[in-house]
Amino acid sequence: MKLNTNFKNIKESYLFAEVANRAAAYSAANPDKKVLKLGIGDVTLPLAPAVISALHSAVDDMSKQETFKGYGPYEGYDFLRESIRAYYKSNGVDLGLNEIFVSDGAKSDLGNILDIFSKDNVILVPDPVYPVYVDTNLMAGRKVIYACANEGNGFLPMPDKKIKADVIYICSPNNPTGAAYTKSQLKEWVDYANENGAVILYDAAYECFITDDSLARSIFQIEGAKSCAIEFCSFSKTAGFTGTRCGYTIVPEKLEADGMNANKTWLRRQATKFNGVPYIVQKGAAAVFTAQGQKEIQQNLAYYRNNAKLIAHCMDELNIWYTGGKNSPYIWLKCPDGMGSWEFFDYLLNGAQVVGTPGAGFGDNGEGFFRLTAFGSAEVTKEAVSRIKSLLKK
Ligand code: PLP
Predict the structure, then answer these.
(1) Ligand 1 pocket residue status of 106, Cβ below 6 Å
(2) What is the pLDDT along the chain (394 residues), one digit of tens a residue?
(3) Which atom of ligand 1 is nearest to the CA of 234?
(4) Atom of ligand 1 nearest to the CA of 106
(5) What whole-number distance in Å separates Cα of residue 383 and Cα of residue 394?
(6) pTM for the predicted model, two decimal places
């Protein structure tokens, strides 16, 4: 037996474990102090009533001979793909049904899509970054290069014509930085990709947080994207599906290279390695697009947005530089007084009993930065903000 030694090139993923260890050690030493967590990237509100009702009725379908479902289509049921198509249409994007692939979440497809790309592509990933992009490529032995995201470019790196990349990852609104590209900035990336025969893997997992019309909800709102991009989206943050698991991937029919069609290749890959998302879950996901579902999930999103606003206002008051907070559930702040990410983590934990995520855990350029999230409860967020203000007010 030979194991895949590329796994030796992946950094130990200790970020969230170390955050939990330090928080637990503090609580054990200070049992009387209440620790508030603004570090998690998981949602906390339950599924919307419209989704719950659709899930129940789909369970009933499975109990009756006439409506029972066995294996479904690899690419998802048409009822859900039609709803996704209508959603894109409402954002000005025309999709063919065959361009929409339902998945069990964006993370799986972000990893799985690499099956259709040859090993010798050069991969361009922003630093700091959602670690999945780097690790999935390192596992396959690909070369990863980094686009430098920093305070100077607002954590939104732009294409560098001197650098030749084949596969480009863009996440907007971004995790961890909360920064989001404008449509005109994305146009520069699309032009660069088309000129270089590259593909953009566009992670739109947080598009539901966009409120500003100058920002893109989908890369396919940008002219030219259908010949150079694949988009990944998810119901996780949009509708609280982190534990329910459903997402979708858009592979345009026009995407071609080496005499092969990416859409057909992806379908072939899915047909070989994937047997679809459960019917029950797809019914729940389709309810997200109904009028009632939209009303209910918008209420949940407004709740998280309000938390984000509270945190962002706090940073404004303290004169702390940050990205995100608007159009994103993440606030990415510059640690005050030149502190390092972990130094600030300890300072905040000891001084305010608030837990966040050290930016250094997302890449070298994250050092000196810190991520707070809006996914906590309104009460916890309010209390945490008030404690942060008291601690950092000069
Ligand atoms: N993409 C980004 C940028 C994320 O932050 C996450 C989850 O936190 C995902 C994808 C994964 O989403 P899913 O739950 O659909 O797998």
Answers:
(1) yes
(2) 999 999 999 988 778 889 999 999 999 999 999 999 999 789 999 999 999 999 999 999 999 999 999 999 999 999 999 999 999 999 999 999 999 999 999 999 999 999 999 999 999 999 999 999 999 999 999 999 999 999 999 999 999 999 999 999 999 999 999 999 999 999 999 999 999 999 999 999 999 999 999 999 999 999 999 999 999 999 999 999 999 999 999 999 999 999 999 999 999 999 999 999 999 999 999 999 999 999 999 999 999 999 999 999 999 999 999 999 999 999 999 999 999 999 999 999 999 999 999 999 999 999 999 999 999 999 999 999 999 999 999 7
(3) 15
(4) 15
(5) 19
(6) 0.97
**Quick check: CB of 104 below 6 Å from ligand 1?**
no
Kindly give the distance from the C-alpha atom of residue 33 to the centroid of ligand 1, in angstroms, as a whole number: 32
* Secondary structure of residue 199 in the 3-state scheme: strand
Q: Could you identify the atom of ligand 1 that is nearest to the CA of residue 110?
A: 10
Residue 320 burial (CB < 10 Å; 0-12/13-18/19+)?
middle
Residue of 104, 108, 130 to mutate, ligand 1, most atoms within 8 A of C-beta: 130
Tokens 């879950």 -> residue: 281
The candidate with the shortest Cα–Cα distance to 143, out of 170, 116, 119, is: 119
